[in-house]
Structures are given as structure tokens and as C-alpha cells.
């Protein structure tokens, strides 16, 4: 299972990004819905979205971690204010999709390093279906 979490720097950052987080979670429940790993139960991307109250750095994927005890591999996706404040929703969606794809590549590489993958083709197909539907949605 792929899951998207979030930490938001202010209410406006949540308003701008949280709908994309919610939509991605719905799609990831719909498509990659079977077991692809030996022990890992979840791949997790945590959006760290900068706002007027909290700032997160550096931009992009950060803090890739294999949490063996919790059966998950996690990574943060740091999103600066300049990527969402005053930016058209379609452009934000494209930026988020690009970031999630980069994070997924890193999560997949870590899962391979840990020799966790048992169905890479199925995982890739489900991920691609979810992302295509996300990217093609109307804003």
C-alpha cells in the first residue's frame, strides 16, 4: 500500500495541497491493492509543506527511511511556499505529481536494496494507473 501523509506550515498550505493528498490516497487504495513486498506493508510519502508559520527545507525528496519494525519505508517530500502560493491549481497538481514520482522511485530503490519486492511489475502498473488518473484529473 502507498500512503500520503502531510504536515502543513499554515492553513493556506493545507488548503492548497491537502486536496491532492486526499485524492492520491483514494487512488492508491484503488490501484495498488495487493501484496507486493515480503515484510513491508506500506510505502509512505509525507508532504512537508512550507507556509507562513513553519518552513521546511530542502525542497524535494528528503529523509528516506526503512522502518523495519513498523514494516514501512518512508520519505518526505518538502514543498516550499513558492510552489503553491499564488500558483494555478493545475500547476500545483503537476508539481505534486512530479514530486510523488521522484519519491516513489527512491522508495522502490530502497525496497530493492532491502530485497523486499516480490511483484515489481504489479506495483509499477498500479502506481502508474493511479498517477495517470491523478495527472489527468480536472482541477
Which short descriptors sum up this protein?
about 140 residues, 4-stranded mixed sheet, about 45% helix, about 20% strand
Report on the structure:
The chain has 139 residues and is of the alpha/beta class. The protein has one domain. 45% of the residues lie in helices and 22% in strands. It has three helices and four strands. The protein has helices at 11-30, 89-113, 120-136; strands at residues 2-8, 42-49, 60-67, 72-79. The chain has a four-stranded mixed beta sheet with strand order 1-2-4-3. A hairpin with a 4-residue loop joins strand 3 and strand 4 (72-79). Helix 1 packs across helix 3 (120-136). The longest helix is centred in the last third of the chain and has 25 residues, at 89-113. It is globular. The protein starts with a strand and ends with a helix.
Brief sketch in words of this structure:
The protein has three helices and four strands; from the N terminus they run βαβββαα. The chain is an alpha/beta fold and 139 residues long. It has one domain.
Amino acid at each position: 500500500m502507498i500512503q500520503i501523509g502531510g504536515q502543513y506550515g499554515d492553513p493556506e498550505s493545507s488548503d492548497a495541497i491537502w486536496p491532492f493528498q486526499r485524492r492520491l490516497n483514494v487512488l492508491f487504495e484503488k490501484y495498488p491493492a495487493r501484496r507486493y513486498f515480503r515484510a513491508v506493508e506500506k510505502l509512505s510519502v509525507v508532504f512537508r509543506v512550507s507556509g507562513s508559520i513553519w518552513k521546511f527545507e530542502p525542497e524535494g525528496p528528503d529523509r528516506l527511511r526503512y522502518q523495519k519494525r513498523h514494516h514501512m519505508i518512508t520519505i518526505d517530500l518538502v514543498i516550499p511556499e513558492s510552489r503553491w502560493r499564488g500558483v494555478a491549481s493545475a500547476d500545483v497538481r503537476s508539481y505534486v505529481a512530479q514530486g510523488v514520482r521522484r519519491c516513489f522511485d527512491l522508495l522502490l530503490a530502497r525496497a530493492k536494496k532491502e530485497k523486499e519486492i516480490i511483484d515489481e511489475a504489479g506495483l509499477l502498473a498500479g502506481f502508474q494507473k493511479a498517477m495517470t488518473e491523478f495527472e489527468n484529473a480536472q482541477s
